[in-house]
């Protein structure tokens, strides 16, 4: 079954709109009657545990490995994942949890001005300053890493438009 599944990992800096595009891509695939699981991987690793406990990436891989078979048994033929990853090792950890499913890595990008505007709508004060700094650092790390198979712009248009562009680039659907 893994060879019949199409999976995509949307990565990008904070504020690029990974989750918004993932949700819209999931909706577009559902409109085409393609059984699709959409997972924001951040939630699978959000844990405040002991200092010597597993890393977020380890938790994400373990949890994804546990839930992905359930989606497959339910008939999922498409998997849409979202998470900011900045290294090949991060991608490999996610890929290893999918048991042979081919994974396409998509870089979701937006201009620094668009990202700053988005972050200012949801954050303030010190959190905003930290997220702006992290977003810039992630953008630089992603440019150096060159992890993407596909790149889409999620700037001035809607997340749905970016998802439509991505769907066309992936050639997914009937």
Explain this structure to me?
This protein is α/β, with parallel strands linked by helices and 174 residues long. Helices cover 51% and strands 16% of the residues. The chain contains 7 helices and 5 strands. It has helices at residues 18-31, 42-45, 56-73, 88-96, 112-122, 125-145, 159-170, and strands spanning 6-11, 36-40, 78-82, 103-109, 150-153. The protein has a 5-stranded parallel sheet with strand order 2-3-1-4-5. The longest helix has 21 residues, at 125-145. The protein is globular, with a radius of gyration of 16 Å. The protein starts with 5 loop residues before the first strand and ends with a helix. The mean pLDDT is 93.
Summarize the structure.
The chain is of the alpha/beta class. Helix content is 51%, strand content 16%.
Main sheet record: 5 strands, parallel
Secondary-structure content class: alpha/beta
Distance between the termini: 19 Å
Per DSSP, the total helix count is 7
Q: Low-confidence parts lasting 5 or more residues at pLDDT below 50?
A: none
Strand ordering within the main sheet? 2-3-1-4-5
Cα radius of gyration in angstroms: 16 Å
* DSSP strand tally: 5
- Provide the helix percentage: 40-55%
Order of helices and strands: EHEHHEHEHHEH
How would you describe the shape?
globular
Estimate the strand proportion: 15-25%
Mean of residue pLDDT values: 93
């Amino acid at each position: 079954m893994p060879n019949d599944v199409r999976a995509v990992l949307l990565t990008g800096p904070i504020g690029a709109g990974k989750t918004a595009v993932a949700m819209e891509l999931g909706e577009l695939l559902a409109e085409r009657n393609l059984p699709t699981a959409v997972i924001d991987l951040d939630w699978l690793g959000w844990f405040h545990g002991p200092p010597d406990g597993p890393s977020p990436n380890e938790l994400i891989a373990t949890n994804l490995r546990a839930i992905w078979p359930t989606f497959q048994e339910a008939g999922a033929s498409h998997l849409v994942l979202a998470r900011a990853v900045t290294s090949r090792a991060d991608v490999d950890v996610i890929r290893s949890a999918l048991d042979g499913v081919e994974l396409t890595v998509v870089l979701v990008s937006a201009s620094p001005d668009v990202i700053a505007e988005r972050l200012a709508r949801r954050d303030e004060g010190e959190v905003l300053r930290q997220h702006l700094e992290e977003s810039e650092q992630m953008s630089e790390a992603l440019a150096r890493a060159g992890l993407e198979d596909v790149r889409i712009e999620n700037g001035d248009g809607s997340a749905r438009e970016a998802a439509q562009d991505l769907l066309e680039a992936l050639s997914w659907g009937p």
